[in-house]
Write a structure and sequence with these properties.
heterodimer, A: 462 residues, mainly alpha, MetI-like fold, two-stranded antiparallel ribbon, 16 helices, 1% strand, B: 425 residues, 17 helices
Chain lengths: 462, 425
Amino acid sequence: MHSTTLILLMGFMSIAAFYLGRSRSLAVVGGPGRGKGLHSLPGYHGYFVSIWCVLPPLALLSGWMLVEPGIITAMVVKSLPASQQELPAGELNLLINNIRNLATGDVVSAAINADFQRAADLYNEYNATSRRLLSVLVLGLAALGGALAWRRIHPDLRARNKVETVIRWALIVASSIAVFTTIGIVLSVLFEAIVFFQKVPVSEFLFGTTWSPQTAIRADQVGSSGSFGAVPLFAGTMLITAIAMIVAVPVGLMTAIFLAEYSSARVRGIAKPLLEILAGIPTVVYGFFAALTVAPWVRRVGESAGFEVASESALAAGLVMGIMIIPLVSSLTDDAINAVPSAMRDGALGLGSTRSETMTKVILPAALPGIVGGILLAVSRAIGETMIVVMAAGLAANLTANPFSAVTTVTVQIVTLLVGDQEFDSAKTLAAFALGLMLFIVTLILNIIGLYTVRKYREQYE
Amino acid sequence: MPNQMTSRARVEAGLSRRKRKEKIFRASGLLATAIGILFLGIFFSTLVAKGASAFVQTYLLLDVELTAETIAPGGELDLEYADFDGLVRTALRNNFPELSGRNDRRELNRLLSVGAGFQVRDLVVANPDLIGTTQEIWVPAASNVDMLMKGNIDATVDESLRNLSDRQIRWIDTLDQAGRVDLRLNKALFTNGDSREPELAGIRGAMMGSFFMLVVTIALAFPVGVAAAIYLEEFAPKNRWSDLVEVNINNLAAVPSIVFGLLGLAVFINWMGLPRSAPLVGGLVLALLTLPVIIIASRAAIKAVPPSIREAALGLGASKMQVVFHHVMPLAMPGMLTGAIIGMSRALGESAPLLMIGMIAFIVDVPGGFTDPATALPVQIYLWADSPERAFAERTSAAIIVLLAFLLLMNLAAVILRRRMERRW
């Protein structure tokens, strides 16, 4: 039986179990009129039976799905002739893949002989048996669990408490998924990165100044030794981030100040939602705009001023990224300014300072920790931004501080290394995970410091 | 002597300077606000200017003779044998009886899209009675013809610098004067999957891919996010674990999206063996990505429910779980739904993690399920933006307009929901 049908069938069984449990709870006290004799409401008895009917078989089902492919593969390998069983791991994997493809009717990359065909038939047979066994076990367990729970129904059964315990655990599991996601991210980049660092020393990766991830396919190939010094990528990321910050910080800061202090309520009511639209535009759209509108414009302006401008300049990507980050900076600044107690503002104004003096000499210094925290979050956002740089910044790993030249960034290289063919035993693919690890660590540190300062600052005035 | 001035005089001496500073400060604030809005204006106007023309497309009106010998030799329609391209080409050539050589013909045929034959075929398959008759049919023109009609190819520059020869332009003029060239609604854009031919490329496949992904995302992220928010707000004891979860969620919201793509590649594809390029995997990754957004919004919504509601329910004998599920959750639902919609609109615009899990492949078929290879709307935009053909640039803009329209609708729904259901306590 297909697992979707199985799950659907279990769903029907659980609904039936609910109604059976509820009606039995009423029956044990002698009819619907005597519900008061029960410890828990009849519905909770229904849920109680339903949970016993669903949870154990669901656990069995997921456990089975997890170990099934491994066991079947091992059994098929055992049936192969001894000479094939002793093949090296890579070739054996290829063979198993081919058997699987033959069994499911996909394209096979080897000649089909009798042994091969027999293995594929065996694979199909094992699979079918496993599925039959699974269906019987799951449905049997569901019926058994439901029946046992149904028999336990009694006026004194604390069904509500039991159901609530299950719900409580479900809530706990849901809340820890966020933690598991973080652990999953760390493990998935860490494992591949460790394999990478076994091939390429950490010092070369962190301090080397040449990045050319092409590895040779043939031994005598020219210029493909593969060099993994990531300094040009870090420098490129820094350059673009710096340009973005030069745009976003002053503009975002002044926007927040203007909207908070100077503008009328009407202007604020129009300008604020308009600026929030900027935050909602997908990054791929910014990338398109950077590559097709801003980059040619930067090039024209730069060349008329006598500079040599690459068609994919760091400046174009940085400018557009800066625009994208304006709403983030301005909303965090706005929060920080609003958190400053109005007594401080009133005091400064009362002593005769102008509004700009109040702002620069009293409110901004008081709000500085909050603003700095916000800027750190903005920097982390700029470092991790992908689509704009992929579309507008180019691939050339130049170690330069010239904003008119093409640079590449960490995120661009991750994308280029992982889009297309991947081989998880070559340094080229693994390098992407090492870069991902660096990216994760750096942004994590920035986020933690940023979030901590913003929160600490808010508490200070509360 | 300055030190003998009264303080009043000193203040007045500096007053004009201070007022000037004030004005400059104010003006720079105005300028900063204007920069953002100005960019928005430039952005939307270039987008519309570039993209609007992609919603129409050049078609040629041809009198196609659906001769029975070529398409239905045995009296029955024979799709293996039928040469619809040949019929369309003959119909075009009938407009220019003076042409005879092979080169002439080949040059003339390049005015037609490769999709022209398919269109006639679909028409005949839908209505076999047409066999043996002559029909006036609007068939798509090649993308170069389309670009010429939209003014993107300059007929005055030297012949070697453009994709259409002088003769081809003359032929198009002839057809145009006969009323056989027209810009009509570009239906292909909304009904076709991706294609190498700009005039046949559509966003339907990408839209369906995005749709299937969002279904997976909302089905996973909304219940889990709401459950997590309920636990953290209503049940979690104040200890190190809940502090850790809290810090974690705030951090996850700020982790670069591409890192989630690495997670999806390593865990869902390499470790769990789920299919590459499938909306299922994309949906899983986007669910993890939007989970923090939904949790944070749901927590805020739960916090906004006043404690008196909880106390009243508790006082009447409800258990803590009943209080939460019967009273707090229904009251917080509008806020939670708003958060979910905002999370979904973020997921719809996201593309970087999808590149990692192979949703960037060139896929012509419109996906029909959760495990079919698919691409997403933003990724389609990325793919088209990379295509060298001129005609793809306008199609990219058109796809962006469609994407932004969807995002606008979602945000509008969120705003309306908030206005309608919001309760002041």
